[in-house]
Every structure is written in structure tokens, then in C-alpha cells.
Specification:
It is built from 15 helices and no strands. The chain is mostly helical.
Length: 406
């Protein structure tokens, strides 16, 4: 069971690493992205070596019991070193001189961590008293071995210091970014860091209780690894969210916009751009580009049918919408949907009203519209496009037009 869980999480984590690595290779100057890639790789390696079968298999191959624990904890230290470098970069200030100081301090921090970790590994090498594998209870099996305890204490000190710093700074940095996906990711990352500190505290308390003659295996071997696993998942989620969030949002927009887009472009194929072969083969490719394209093509159709829409069609739709107590957003969506359907209908039969509309795009009094708001507005238009209220407005316009022609 543990193998399945940890190997599954490890595979998912390495998929995130691969995705971030591709993005980093496209933007090699983005040091923060590179650090995030390295730190994510550290977490992914921890999950893999946490699988008992892989742990034991690695040790059998190496011929050294519990050597996998060194690699597991070394991966955590890589994460911690990356966190310290991020802290120094984010707190460096502006200007080339500040960035140069940050680079110098980062090199010193990484060097210091490397030196401490070399001492820790030496403690492991000289203090490991037997050849028994301990993938689940390593920290409690060697509480009487000074060398192994040095290894563990230095590991917890490095890891805990990095978690405390990153957990404190991430929310402050997120506060500057508003409601962006990056801000949300940083807050989740901070939650993972604080939960990771719970893991460190559980281990330290377990050591103290063991030395005092009161074993607390449930704390060291139960609560601690559980909190560490959840913390690692939160850290991975924090790293993944800034990239995954916009794509999930784009996918949702596509699901809502696509019915409207297919309907309006079927009657105006000249406005459509041919999709790439990759997008056709893989439905999750180019999500944001496709969402942008669909919105632009819907707007192109709207601009092309203005002369086929009666000048008062939008006003009539607004009045009918007000009778059913819709809010401003829904009212605007109903009016725009009715105007769009009326324009396409008139164009299909070649009817051009004596006085066409200046615009069939319903805005909010000329105020600038953010892209996300425009997407949401068009999605609402798609939702009400075939609603009974829009049908009522169209029926009224058809009857009036028939009376005029008659």
C-alpha cells in the first residue's frame, strides 16, 4: 500500500518537474522558475525513496543498509537550499548592486548548507551501528547512536530553518500579487511549509522523549511522516498551481464558450482560424490560445452583423430582462445574446433593418473591461443563448418586423 501511494505521488511530482523544466528551458533567464524546478525535483525524489520497496531495492543494489535514507534526506536538503536562495532573492531589493549581493549571499548559503550536510553524512557513515533496514522507523531506531543523531539533527535544523523562512515570506509576497494564481500558489506553499515544521517538531519531541525514557513511536513514526507527506503534497500544489490554474480556467472557459462559438462561426466560417494539428490530436493543448481565439472570433461575428440588428433590439431585450428581476450581469448577457441571435437570423434571410445597431456588444457604461470579466460575460451569453427569455425577445422582434413588412 505504501509503495502504491508513494510511487504514485512520486510519478505525479516528476510529471510536474518535467513540465516546469520545459518552461524553464524556454525561459532560461528566469532564475526563480529554475529554482522552483530544482525544489520540485527534490520533493519528487523524496516521494520515490519513501516507497519501502524502492528504498530496500536501492540499498540492496548499493550494498549499504539505509543508504536510501541519505538520498531521501539529501533531496530534502536540496529543497531547503533552494528555499534559502529564493528567500535571499526575494528580500534582496531592487538594483543591480542588490542583486549582486543576493547572488553572493546565495552562494555562501548553499556553501554553508553543503558543508553542514557533509558533516551530517559523515555522522551517518560512522554512526550506523547495524545493517538492518529501517525505511519506516529510521529516526527511532538509532536514538542511541551519536553519529546518526548528528545526521538527523543537522537535517532537521537545515530543513526547519528553510521552512520557517519560506513560510513567513510567501504570504507577504503573495499579498503584493492580488488574486493571481501565483499568489494562491504561494499561500498553499506557505501552508505546506508550516505543516512541514509540524513534522520537524514531532521528530524533535520524539527524540527528547526517547532520551528521557518515554518512547513515543506514534509521534515519530506516525504523526511525523503523515504531516510530512501532506506538507509535501501542499508544496507540490503550491508550485503547480501558478501553471495549472490558468490552464484549468482556460479549459473551463472553453467548455462554456465552445457551444456559442460553434453556433455563431458555423454561419460565419470566414472568421475562424484553422486549429493546429496538435490541438486537434490533444484536446488540452493550447488552451489559453484557443480560449482567446474563440472570444475574438465571436467578437468578429458580432461586428459583422451590426447592420442586421435593429437599433432598439438591445433596449427591448433589456426591458424584458428587467421584468424578471435579473441582475446587471445577467441582463447584459440576455441583451447581447438576443442581439446576436437576431443579427444572425436576419442575415440568414437577407433582411436588413432600416436602422441598424451601432453595436451589439453590451458593456458597462463604457468602463474598461478586464479580460477575465469579458470571458465571464461571454460565457454568460452562451448560457442564456437559447433561454426562453431570449426566445421571447426574438418573437417580439419577428412579429414587429412582420407587421412593418406587411
Amino acid at each position: 500500500m505504501f509503495d502504491l501511494i508513494y510511487l504514485g505521488f512520486g510519478a505525479a511530482a516528476w510529471a510536474i518537474v518535467a513540465y516546469k523544466a520545459v518552461a524553464w528551458f524556454k525561459d532560461r533567464g528566469n532564475a526563480d522558475l529554475g529554482l522552483a524546478c530544482v525544489m520540485t525535483a527534490g520533493v519528487a525524489t523524496v516521494f520515490l525513496f519513501s516507497a519501502p520497496s524502492l528504498y530496500r531495492g536501492f540499498d540492496r543494489l548499493a550494498g549499504v543498509a539505509n543508504l536510501a535514507m541519505v538520498f531521501l534526506y539529501s533531496s530534502v536538503v536540496v529543497f531547503a537550499a533552494g528555499a534559502l536562495v529564493l528567500l535571499l532573492r526575494w528580500t534582496a531589493g531592487d538594483g543591480e548592486a542588490a542583486r549582486a549581493r543576493a547572488r553572493s549571499r546565495a552562494r555562501a548559503a548553499v556553501g554553508g548548507v553543503a558543508a553542514l550536510w557533509a558533516v551530517a553524512i559523515t555522522g551517518f557513515a560512522v554512526g550506523r551501528p547495524d545493517a538492518v533496514e529501517h525505511p519506516r522507523d529510521f529516526s527511532t531506531a538509532y536514538t542511541d547512536s551519536p553519529g546518526v543523531m548528528l545526521f538527523l539533527v543537522l537535517y532537521l535544523a537545515i530543513f526547519g530553518a528553510a521552512l520557517a523562512g519560506l513560510g513567513t515570506l510567501c504570504p507577504r509576497y503573495a499579498a503584493r500579487l492580488g488574486g493571481s494564481w501565483l499568489a494562491r500558489g504561494l499561500r498553499i506553499l506557505a501552508a505546506g511549509c508550516w505543516l512541514g515544521l509540524v513534522y520537524c517538531a514531532c521528530k524533535v519531541i520524539g527524540f527528547v522523549l526517547s532520551w528521557a525514557g518515554h518512547e513515543a513511536l506514534w509521534l515519530s513514526n506516525g504523526v511525523a511522516p503523515l504531516s510530512a507527506s501532506v506538507a509535501a503534497l501542499l508544496v507540490l500544489a503550491g508550485f503547480a498551481l501558478p501553471a495549472a490554474g490558468p490552464r484549468v480556467a482556460a479549459w473551463r472557459r472553453l467548455r462554456r464558450l465552445s457551444p456559442l462559438w460553434r453556433t455563431v462561426t458555423a454561419q460565419s466560417p470566414e472568421v475562424t482560424i484553422e486549429s493546429s494539428s496538435w490541438s486537434v490530436r490533444w484536446p488540452f493543448a493550447d488552451l489559453e490560445w484557443r480560449a482567446n481565439r474563440q472570444m475574438a472570433e465571436i467578437r468578429d461575428v458580432q461586428r459583422g452583423i451590426r447592420s442586421f440588428v435593429e437599433s432598439d433590439a438591445v433596449d427591448i431585450a433589456r426591458e424584458r430582462a428587467r421584468t424578471v428581476s435579473l441582475d446587471d450581469r445577467q441582463l447584459a448577457a440576455v441583451a447581447e445574446a438576443a442581439a446576436l441571435r437576431r443579427g444572425l437570423e436576419n442575415r440568414s434571410v437577407g433582411h436588413v433593418p432600416a436602422l441598424g445597431a451601432d453595436s451589439v456588444v453590451v458593456d458597462k457604461g463604457g468602463e474598461p473591461v478586464e479580460p477575465a470579466d469579458e470571458y465571464e460575460h461571454l460565457a454568460l451569453v452562451a448560457d442564456v443563448y437559447h433561454s426562453p427569455l431570449v426566445e421571447t425577445v426574438l418573437t417580439e422582434l419577428r412579429q414587429r418586423s412582420a407587421m412593418v413588412r406587411g
